Amino acid sequence: MKFQNEEYEGETFKDLDLTGTSFKSSKFIDCNFENCNLSNVDLNGTKFKDIRFRKCKILGLDFSKCNDFMLSMGFEDSFLSYSIFSDMNLENTDFINCQIYDCDFLNTNLKNANFEGSDLKNSLFGHTNLSFTSFRNAKNYNIDPNNNFLKKTKFSIPEVISLLNIYDIELE
Fold first, then answer.
1. In Å, how far are 24, 69, 89, 137 from 63, measured between CA atoms?
2. Does the chain have fewer CB atoms within 10 Å around its N or its C terminus?
3. pLDDT tens-digit profile of 34-77?
4. Strands 134-135 and 154-155
């Protein structure tokens, strides 16, 4: 199946291994990816509008290379690792019940995003707008409250205590 310089609308891609595929300059509108391996996919100039990734493996993708016009996507029950979301507007984006390991969210607008139930091991947040974002039942996040914008951000106990990690204090 050819994905470069193509346009897809209202399609579901299921149980596909798309490792190393080029989505360069393609448009995906109102599409679903279910149980797909999207490792090392070239996203240069790709347009994603109303895209859902469910139970997908997403390894080494640079989402910041996507065309940002009307960009909207969501992730659910997926494994994301070594992927870049920096310098993007991801307002209202869902990352629900995902494993998000070693991903970059630097200078990203994540206002009203949803990370509920996700594991954010080794993922980076810096100069990121996290206002009204939910981290309920999320774990392993490392967020510096002095280096990110937190307003009405939602956290769960006891994980919220990790916000104190930067202060080198001891809690008993």
1. 12, 13, 11, 25
2. C
3. 999 999 999 999 999 999 999 999 999 999 999 999 999 999 99
4. parallel
